[in-house]
Amino acid sequence: MNKIRIGTRGSALALAQAKLAAAALEKKGYATELVVVRTRGDENLQKSLSDIGRGAFTDVFSQILSRGEIDVAVHSAKDLPTTEEKDAFFCLPRGDARDVLVFSGEVKRIGTGSPRRAAGALHLFPQAEILPVRGNVDTRLRKLAAGEYDALVLAAAGLSRLGLLQGDRVQFENHAFGCRFFSPQECVPAACQGIIALEGGAGECVNDPAARRAALIERRAQRALDGDCSGGAGAYFDGTFLFVQREGKTARLIFRGEETFSSLSELL
Predict the structure, then answer these.
(1) How far apart are CA 260 and CA 160, in angstroms?
(2) How far is CA 228 from CA 21, 57, 220, 223, in A?
(3) How far is Cα 146 from Cα 156, in angstroms, rounded to an integer?
(4) pLDDT at residue 58, as a whole number
(5) Of 211, 214, 223, 221, which Cα lies nearest the Cα of 250?
(6) pTM to 2 decimals?
(7) Do residues 177 and 153 make contact, with C-beta atoms less than 8 angstroms apart?
(8) Per-residue pLDDT at 134
(9) Using an 8 Å Cβ cutoff, are 136 and 130 in contact?
(10) Which residue of 64, 192, 235, 241 shows the fewest CB atoms closer than 10 Å?
(11) DSSP H helical segments within 46-196, as ranges?
(12) Mean per-residue pLDDT over the chain, rounded
């Protein structure tokens, strides 16, 4: 049997997600091999994600797939460009979509590179200073431990997949940080947050229909809001309600198909 070659970034979180995809494929009877790829987002850690743009961590994989060097690419679905032609991906079952405030003590300086997360954090801590932060989860948590920040806003799914989230605490190396989950009303998750995307036909056999439906609805909502993962827009579908956020304003609607999308811009 030929191995399914799985393209992935080399960060701890990317590898953890790729291993989840490998386990799902192996459960279907396929052999797998991980192929680590470096992206332009990995190359440039000085600029903010807002400056680099969406696709910084994913665009190179499309080229490698087209050349036949890998059979499937594994991404955090929220990192994919929001254009309609990029909707052709498959999904593993969704993890926790919420954001988490991870803190070391009194919250005065909050690290995040996301205007969406900044808006949610300032809603809870209006006097706090928002500071930019880049790097993978480990890098950010080391900066928190070193006192560069009092708190960070991170994705619950990523912390969980790295084995760092333990109830209401985040355990990292010899540090135990407090954590506070944001509800979707307080900080609407980024579109597709918590969803692992598989780009390439080999992902079809492990596709989760509920996660894929949510992903397509949230991406469609994000396009209606003219937003991307580096901006202030958020979109989350829980199976009944669509939560949306733009420039700090949030709303919740019963999802009614296309008519829901047409009302978003007016609503926000």
Answers:
(1) 32
(2) 25, 14, 11, 8
(3) 22
(4) 76
(5) 221
(6) 0.89
(7) no
(8) 86
(9) no
(10) 241
(11) 49-52, 59-66, 115-124, 137-145, 156-161
(12) 90
Q: How many beta carbons lie within 10 A of that of residue 84, not counting itself?
A: 11
Which of the residues in the chain have pLDDT under 50?
47-48, 50-53
What is the CATH number that goes with domain 4-92+193-207?
3.40.190.10
Q: If we measure between CA atoms, which residue out of 184, 188, 213 comes closest to residue 89?
A: 213
Contacts of 76 (CB under 8 A, 6+ apart): 13, 14, 17, 57, 158, 192, 193, 195, 196, 197
Q: Which structure tokens are listed for 191?
A: 């579109």
Can you tell me which residue has the tokens 């192929």? Answer: 35
Q: Which of 26, 25, 6, 24 is closest to 15 using CA atoms?
A: 6
> Is the CA virtual torsion 130, 131, 137, 140 positive or negative?
negative
Q: Which of 157, 78, 146, 143 is nearest to 114 (CA)?
A: 78
Q: What are the start and end residues of each CATH 3.40.190.10 domain in the chain?
A: 4-92+193-207, 99-181
- Sole residue written with tokens 């989350």: 236
Phi then psi for residue 210, to 5 deg, are -65, -45
**99 beta partners:** 155
Distance between CA 87 and CA 238 in Å, rounded? Answer: 19
Residues assigned a catalytic role: 79
pLDDT for 44 equals 52
Q: Are 132 and 113 in contact (CB under 8 A)?
A: yes
Residues with Cβ within 8 Å of 218's Cβ and at least 6 positions away in sequence, in order, are: 191, 192, 235, 236, 237, 242
Residue 41 is predicted with a pLDDT of 53
Beta-bridged to residue 106, according to DSSP, are none
